[in-house]
Design brief:
The chain has 264 residues and is α+β, with helices and mostly antiparallel strands. Helix content is 23%, strand content 37%. The strands form 2 sheets. Strands 1, 2, 3, 6, 7, 8, 9, 10, 11 and 12 form a 10-stranded mixed β-sheet that branches. It has a two-stranded antiparallel ribbon with strand order 4-5.
């Protein structure tokens, strides 16, 4: 991602450089192929395609200690286990869901039918751990379901490609199947790089929002997927159900702090 600042219906990108795939995705959106509506524009943003946005002096400046970066799958899995919080860290009432953890030798892939599947890790990805938590809803509401994801890449370039893919996926599949009987619809994405328009908490930050429905919980309910890239590590939080808006933000901030503590 680069010094380009773009805001378009269905997707907003504020980054340090566009891959060819993301450039194509943007051209499709600008051509009117996206019917979803993006998040409110940032202060001072008219919601149209903007000119170049330069990083500010107060951008994110954390750099991992190279000696602490994992070199193999075992080291990456150990790091991910430290970064991913336990359910209790999310707040009162949260407990481990069943299953509680994914196989760190696999990761989630959005297939051609816009359904999520777990597949073996590709080259360049050392580990991808997901933890699942839930809390009962208040006043008869359905439960709040949270997924916490830590993906450790072998390089910054590999992690950066994952961020670009995340943005492209919401454009390619605004409606997705999360699992058996679970769906999200009307997805829109917003992405910003460090130092651009006040984003100074990570190298890259992406948020997806939409509506969640399931056979078990009904719906629609709010859906949020928030992602940060810190060097070669990606942390993400998915919140499904009637949760406080701060839940995803606070959980992501906690994971980000764990990355900095482990690698600083």
């Amino acid at each position: 991602m680069s010094v380009l600042g773009v805001s378009v219906p269905g997707m907003s990108v504020l980054g340090r450089g566009l891959t060819a795939g993301l450039a194509v995705a943007l051209s499709l959106t600008l051509g009117g192929c996206s019917g979803s509506e993006g998040p409110p524009p940032a202060a001072g943003d008219d919601g149209a395609v903007n000119g170049t946005a330069s990083p500010s002096a107060d951008g994110y400046d954390f750099a991992a200690d190279p000696a602490k970066l994992p070199r193999d799958a075992a080291g990456a899995r150990a790091l991910a286990a430290v970064i991913a919080p336990d359910p209790a860290a999310l707040g009162d009432g949260f407990v481990a869901a069943t299953p509680y953890e994914s196989d760190p030798g696999t990761w989630a892939v959005l297939d051609d039918a816009c359904a999520w599947q777990r597949e073996p890790l590709p080259d360049g990805v050392l580990s991808s751990l997901s933890r699942y938590a839930e809390a009962p809803g208040a006043d008869g509401e359905p439960p709040v379901r949270v997924t916490l994801v830590v993906t450790v890449h072998a390089s910054v370039e590999s992690a950066d490609r994952e961020v670009t893919t995340t943005l492209e996926e919401a454009l390619r599949c605004p409606d997705q199947q999360l699992g058996r009987g679970e769906y999200v619809t009307g997805l829109s994405s917003f992405g910003s790089a460090a130092g651009v328009r006040g984003q100074n908490s990570a190298d890259d930050h992406v948020v997806e929002t939409g509506q969640y429905t399931s056979d078990a919980d009904g719906g629609p309910h709010p859906y949020t997927w928030a992602v940060d890239r810190i060097g070669s590590v990606i942390v993400g939080v998915s919140v499904r159900g009637p949760a406080d808006e701060a839940l995803a933000t606070d959980a992501l901030a906690g994971m980000r702090s764990r990355v900095e503590e482990a690698l600083g």
